[in-house]
Amino acid sequence: HIVNPEDYQPPIWKSYLYQLQQDAPRPKRITCPQEVFHGMISREFADELLARAEGAYLIRESQRQPGSHTLALRFGHQTLNYRLFYDGKHFVGEKRFESVHDLVTDALITLYIETKAAEYIARMTTNPIYEHLGYTSLLKDKMVHRLSRGRTEPRRVTFQRNDRISSPLVRRSALKDTPEKQCSYEKIHNFKVHTFRGPHWCEYCANFMWGLIAQGVRCSDCGLNVHKQCSKLVPSDCQPDLRRIKKVFSCDLTTLVKAHNATRPMVVDMCIQEIEARGMKSEGLYRVSGFTEHIENVRLAFNRDGEKADISASAYADINTITGALKLYLRDLPIPVITFELYSKFIQSAKIPNVESRLEAVHESLLQLPPAHYETLRYLMAHLKRVTLFEKDNLMNSENLGIVFGPTLMQPPELNALTTLNDMRQQKLVVQLMIEHEDVLF
Ligand SMILES: [Zn+2]
Ligand SMILES: [Zn+2]
């Protein structure tokens, strides 16, 4: 649903954990009068030295493992001992610190908060503000627009072919004639552990993100900041921020279309429009390759200018530059249009001898593609079908287009020369089938 910008209420950030962090004991280093480090003193003696204050700490050499160091830290009226490591940074667990002082500061905050507020933390995700927040994009752009979650339910239709009714196939409602521009594909967030400078609050549960470093995670695509534990509960509704998406080529398909709020990548739309406008009769269309440096220039233009890239005849007179750029774009996707996950399903489908069952299997596999991949494939196949209508001039039919696009659209999950060679026939066949039966498959 769309929320009216006037209805937007700023979230109420919860400061309980922030207050607690302020109260956490501060590190107090117990220094040895003679040396920098305490030597091989016993646990008991360390205990005695630290008993004075919460937050007191010292580093001693381990008696059991000489040469290794132990951090002894006073917290909760007892002495905690940690094996201390150093590899350019200091650490006892996952987090790495510039100094032992920072490590102890962070440990004290974490221990204090997680002891004092254990129950609070366990419950903090149960009533998230996320839904009310309308996500971060709203804070940045004042654009209150919540993406509709679920996908459009595919509707069941029966299609007729050769005057007999084939088994019912599930068919997605056609988008062709709907000018619907809003993209509602699901996309998972791309969370990475993050160190926040200054106090930060979780955009899922509204609570403070405690600690000195690595307090939470940030989505590299949209900038959403949440606790690590909250990240597992955030829905797959990442709306990538254009400012964070650096390039067009080699960018994940779903990420790119979500960033541009489009149905398909603009590279595919723009190249196909250009080819249909001036290249359909060109001999060897898609088979003949353009000059590598011209294709490279197109790639750079898209990465630099996005949808403003100039690929007109005045910029690139040779249509093979445009077909080459489109092929390169598809080949360079980190996840191919026919995803690694579904690769073998498509290959197996192509091996089915019965034509009718083979088509059905391909259709079943198509429906499992992520929506952005499905829409891209559908648009491309409709275009390739039109290319074959000009076979008399361009000498391209569905079979040789299958040879060209097979390895461009599908790659085995593990690159292995033998599999690739064995699957070539099926790759070609899958594409050939999709072109020939484009009208019923999509
Ligand atoms: Zn995100
Ligand atoms: Zn949270």
TrEMBL record:
Domain of life: Eukaryota
GO MF annotations, alphabetized: GTPase activator activity; zinc ion binding
Disulfide bond is among the record's keywords: no
Protein name: N-chimaerin
Keyword set, alphabetical order: Acetylation, GTPase activation, Metal-binding, Neurogenesis, Phosphoprotein, SH2 domain, Zinc, Zinc-finger
SMART domains (UniProt xref): C1 (SM00109), RhoGAP (SM00324), SH2 (SM00252)
Domain Rho-GAP: residue ranges: 251-442
Domain Phorbol-ester/DAG-type: 188-238
GO biological process: nervous system development; signal transduction
Record bears the keyword 4Fe-4S: no
Residue ranges annotated for the SH2 domain, each copy included: 36-104
